[in-house]
Amino acid sequence: MTEPAPAKLNLCLHVTGQRADGYHLLDSLVAFTSVGDHVTATPAERLTLSIDGPFAPGLSSAAENLVLRAARLLDPDRGAHVHLHKALPVAAGIGGGSADAAATLRVLSRLWDLPLPDPASVLGLGADVPACLHPGLLRMRGIGQDLTRLGDLPSLPLLLVNPGVALSTPAVFDGLETKTNPPVDDAMPAPTETEAWVGWLVRQRNDLAAPAIAAQPVIGRVLDALAARPGARLARMSGSGATCFAIFADPAQRDAATEALRAAQPDWWIMPTGEWAR
Predict the structure, then answer these.
(1) What is the per-residue pLDDT for 64?
(2) Which of 79, 86, 223, 248 could make an S-S bridge to 55, C-beta 3.0–4.6 Å?
(3) What is the per-residue DSSP string for 250-272?
């Protein structure tokens, strides 16, 4: 049995406060692309994990891996062989580890014939895991547990770019100058009204972009390179970085940007897409 673990994009991310226990309060619009990892599970007596894929060297199959932690959360006593195909960059702001954990929960719930845990019970695996359990267009608030489903997004020409640098999420949050910022504008047009919706999205923010760029200035170069391409309607960083994305006016302009950036920056991870995980 196989489950996709789609890349999560924070289309906008507003940091609205910080709790006494240190957790930051967020208001974010989240969507999941058709690009991602895959998790496969087969029956076995013991719980084991193997990993392959272009970004497998950045991961360990030791017990603290989120995939194994997710499996033990679902049932600490059952066995399975879990295989992770790692196609997404690691520590990249696109929820790779959280998406892998959520996909593990989904595939093992099928294999073991168990119900999925409720979102609150998986928060210990990571703040993004509740959102990744049921991919779609979501508004994510609080520390990640307050989720509102917003329906589906129409296809949009997208380009994802990661310059190959990793960022520590806690360090990026620590770099925030202001931790109490305005929330997402509630007057969001319907996503099917593409022109109005993209225009609304442009007026939102990612409050983590400034501290991420301060830590890794190459992120600013990525954003500038995306914004300068013909047809780019929005260029923004996802999550705590370093992956950035651009929405283009049409697929031909996205494809031209893909070709130009791959030629100019052969060491960057550059991935065109346009479909969303449902």
Answers:
(1) 84
(2) 86
(3) SHHHHHHHHHHHHHH-TTSEEEE
